[in-house]
From TrEMBL:
UniProt record similarity statement: Belongs to the glycosyl hydrolase 1 family.
SUPFAM superfamilies (alphabetical): (Trans)glycosidases
UniProt GO MF annotations: beta-glucosidase activity
Presence of the UniProt keyword Hydrolase in the record: yes
A GO term from the CC aspect: cytosol
GO biological process, one term: carbohydrate catabolic process
Protein name in UniProt: Beta-glucosidase
UniProt xrefs under InterPro entries: GH, GH_1_N_CS, Glyco_hydro_1
Length: 485
């Protein structure tokens, strides 16, 4: 029996603000991501209200996909991609976010990409909002904490659905929408205002906890997403529209009931709080107590409730990189994660950025989520950030990346045998791009190397790594041949 369905969607993923570059070209306005200075593993990224000509803003150039898109799509085609997940930069379509008319040059840029994808047999999977919003919405409206932003987003989404009808059939409304539950997400995901010079860290947005603002912003995104789902279906019945969650897989540190209970509660908040709203169309029962105990009072109308109930998603997609550990113990050894910090797991290996490598956690997560929702699932981010060494002959022998993918693809195959309806897999950063968390270029994920580094050196030329040929073989065999030879 085959490990994967014959129509399984193999591919990779990128995000406009980390990959595209050309931040002020052809009518694009500044986005929230364009105001973030790069950092590194020890130095947090920093927000500036105005552009500092002496500072490095990673999104301004990214990997220069804007000028390399044809070459890059050819690489994806050579690997045999069935699907390519990319995001659209909102401020390339509506420079200020509240504009009446869209920027035609921005629309045409993506149209040519989607047309070329179809010529190459690649299905586009488009994220409408991926960690960026027009910066004007932050300055003028306070970002997603303002209900008015719902209508601006809906107008933007409706424009995309109409313009790309027949070219795009798979959509995601918000990237890692549950990151607004973490302080780090206040600006990154919610476009909430920050003080000039504020640092972004996993445990702080740079401006306090802001629980009320973050959950109000999250609610407005839920409403905006649900409205977009309804509009997308009305414009094209063939549209499949999903949610996207930052998948959190945690274990209790000990067998103490308190550790297990804390782990279960973290699982509820991280994976099912947003999932329930977007898949089931209503807030989960545990949300009421959370709001009461944290004195959160939402602007939540009866009309909102009806919109959420009707605008449920067609599939559940998520990112998965690593797992964490929950405990009631104090002063435990900590490790980083996907914009989170948790206790270190003594049974797992960690990468250079402190992320645990746990393929079994992916199988567990897939079973857990599918058991709750019983709708198709898609892994739309998974990968290993690492320092890659270019050898004297130009080769890059990234066997560590191949090992990571082998284990995670095998875990997906086991989950499918378990009965999970998994329809696709897009690895993160299939062509090297800058990191959202640290703004680094040297934290590489791709199968294709981009000649650019953290010192802003390099000509953006591309060439395949060893993993490029390995993934090509894996796709061609539909996941049957994962050997590294």
């Amino acid at each position: 029996m085959a490990k994967f369905p014959k129509d399984f969607l193999w591919g990779g993923a990128t995000a406009a603000n980390q990959y595209e570059g050309a931040w002020n070209v052809d009518g694009k306005g500044p986005s929230t991501a364009d105001m973030l200075i790069g950092g590194d593993v020890n130095t947090p990224r920093r927000f500036t209200k105005t552009i500092d000509p002496n500072a490095y803003y990673p999104s301004h150039q990214g990997s220069d996909f804007y000028h390399h898109w044809e070459e890059d799509l050819n690489y994806l085609h050579e690997m045999g991609f069935k699907v390519y997940r990319l995001s659209i930069a909102w401020s390339r379509i509506f420079p200020n976010g509240d504009d009446i008319e869209p920027n035609r040059k921005g629309l045409e840029f993506y149209r040519q990409i989607f047309k070329r994808c179809h010529e190459l047999g690649i299905e586009p999977l488009v994220t409408i909002s991926h960690y960026e919003a027009p910066y004007h919405l932050t300055e003028a409206y306070g970002g997603w904490a303002n209900r008015k932003v719902i209508d601006f987003f809906v107008n933007y989404a409706q424009t995309l659905f109409r313009e790309y009808r027949g070219l795009v059939h798979y959509w995601l409304t918000f990237n890692e929408i549950n990151m607004l539950q973490a302080p780090f997400g206040a600006y990154m995901a919610g476009a909430l205002p920050l003080e000039d010079g504020a640092e972004l860290k996993p445990d702080t947005s740079g401006a306090g906890d802001r629980l009320q603002e973050r959950y109000q912003a999250l609610h407005y995104q839920f409403v905006a997403s649900a409205k977009a789902v309804q509009i997308g279906h009305a414009i094209d019945l063939h549209n499949e529209i999903g949610c996207m969650i930052a998948g959190g897989m945690d274990y209790p540190l000990t067998a103490r009931p308190e550790d297990t209970f804390k782990t279960d509660m973290a699982d509820n908040m991280r994976n099912f709080f947003c999932g329930d709203v977007q898949v089931r169309g209503e807030y989960p029962p545990f949300a009421k107590r959370f709001f009461e105990e944290n004195n959160i009072k939402l602007d939540f109308t009866d009309a909102d409730r009806q919109i959420l109930a009707i605008g449920t998603v067609d599939f559940y997609s998520f990112s998965y990189y690593s797992s964490g550990v929950e405990t009631t113990e104090k002063n435990t050894d900590k490790a980083a994660g996907n914009q989170t910090v948790s206790t270190r797991n003594p049974y797992l290996k960690y990468n250079d950025w402190g992320w645990a490598m746990d393929p079994l956690g992916l199988r567990t997560y897939l079973n857990r989520v599918y058991g709750r929702y019983q709708i198709p699932l898609m892994v739309v981010e998974n990968g290993l950030g690492a320092f890659d060494k270019v050898e004297a002959d130009g080769s890059i022998n990234d066997d560590y990346r191949i090992d990571y993918y082998q284990a995670h693809i095998n875990a997906m195959a086991e989950a499918i045998k378990d009965g999970v309806d998994l329809i696709g897999y897009t690895t993160w950063g299939c062509i090297d791009l800058v990191s959202a968390g640290t703004g680094q270029m040297d934290k590489r994920y791709g199968f294709v190397y981009v000649n650019r580094n953290d010192k802003q050196e390099g000509d953006f030329s591309r060439h395949p790594k060893k993993s490029f040929y390995w993934y090509k073989k894996a796709i061609a065999s539909n996941g049957e041949d994962l050997s590294n030879d």
